[in-house]
């Protein structure tokens, strides 16, 4: 297929929802929030954003994806998001990422329906030599809470209580298996109203 002409590309850009108002400063701010969330698992880092991504992609999940993904990071969309062509077009245009059909090929997976999150095993787990070649899952959640799960491990003094909804009902059991793979395994980034939290593979999760 021939590349789009300049006029076609301009027409496509005019029909897409805009990305960050200031791509550099906004990306840096979101990236810092995600890094703090990973360093302090179970804490919600605030995000102040002016984005209007195509539904059902949330503002926070869109911002995290725009800050983290680029042309070198294949991106997988869950069925809810993949069913809306405007979502894929928005993400491809603003990040340069390739949308892949095979979750095992993705470096980032974007999930709008975390309650039906596929088994972690279908995503890249990394290798002993390259544990960083694993996937990071970005989950859209509707709310954060401080009850339901106990988090232990690096970045947590003693125990931290945390929860988000929706999440898979068997998350604690899945996480035990995921942590057993360390340093391999997946990481979770949770994008919710006004903020972002993270569950890195290094921590333990038990039901409170």
- Main pleated sheet: 6 strands, mixed
> Helix tally?
6
Q: Any idea how many domains?
A: 1
CATH class: Alpha Beta
Structural class: alpha/beta
What string, H for helix and E for strand, traces the elements in order?
Answer: HHEHEHHEEEEHEEE
> For this structure, what is the CATH homologous superfamily?
Bacterial phosphonate metabolism protein PhnH
Averaging pLDDT over every residue, what do you get?
92
Give the helix level as a range of percent. 25-40%
Low-confidence stretches: 1-13
Round the Cα radius of gyration to an integer and report it: 17 Å
Spatial separation of the terminal alpha carbons: 54 Å
CATH topology: Rossmann fold
Q: What fraction of the residues are assigned to beta strands by DSSP?
A: 15-25%
Task: Describe the global form.
Answer: globular
Give me the side-by-side strand order of the main sheet: 1-8-7-4-3-2
Number of strands: 9
Commentary on this structure:
By secondary structure, the protein is α/β, with parallel strands linked by helices. The chain has one domain: Bacterial phosphonate metabolism protein PhnH (Rossmann fold), CATH 3.40.50.11310. Helices cover 29% and strands 22% of the residues. The chain has 6 helices and 9 strands, in the order H-H-E-H-E-H-H-E-E-E-E-H-E-E-E. The chain has helices at 6-15, 23-39, 59-68, 79-82, 85-95, 171-179, and strands at residues 45-46, 75-77, 108-111, 136-140, 143-152, 160-165, 187-192, 195-199, 204-207. It has a 6-stranded mixed β-sheet. It has a 3-stranded antiparallel β-sheet with strand order 6-5-9, covered by helices on one side. Strand 7 (187-192) and strand 8 (195-199) form a beta hairpin. The chain is globular and about 50 Å long.
């Amino acid at each position: 297929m021939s590349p789009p002409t300049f006029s076609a590309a301009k027409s496509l850009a005019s029909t897409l929802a805009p990305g960050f108002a200031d791509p550099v400063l906004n990306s840096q701010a979101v990236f810092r929030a995600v890094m703090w969330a990973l360093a302090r698992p179970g804490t919600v880092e605030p995000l102040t954003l002016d984005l209007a991504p195509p539904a059902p992609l949330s503002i926070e999940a869109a911002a995290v994806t725009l800050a983290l993904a680029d042309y070198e990071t294949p991106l997988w969309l869950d069925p809810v998001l993949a069913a809306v062509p405007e979502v894929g077009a928005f993400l491809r245009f603003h990040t340069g990422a390739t949308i892949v059909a095979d979750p095992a090929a993705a470096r980032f997976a974007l999930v709008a329906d975390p309650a039906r999150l596929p088994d972690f095993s279908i995503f890249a787990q990394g290798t002993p030599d390259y544990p960083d070649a694993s996937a990071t899952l970005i989950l859209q959640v509707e709310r954060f809470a401080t009850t339901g799960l106990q988090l232990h491990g690096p970045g947590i003094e003693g125990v931290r209580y945390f929860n988000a909804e929706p999440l898979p009902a068997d998350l604690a059991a899945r996480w035990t298996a995921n942590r057993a793979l360390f340093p391999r395994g997946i990481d979770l980034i949770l994008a919710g109203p006004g903020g972002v939290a993270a569950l890195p593979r290094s921590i333990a999760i038990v039901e409170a």
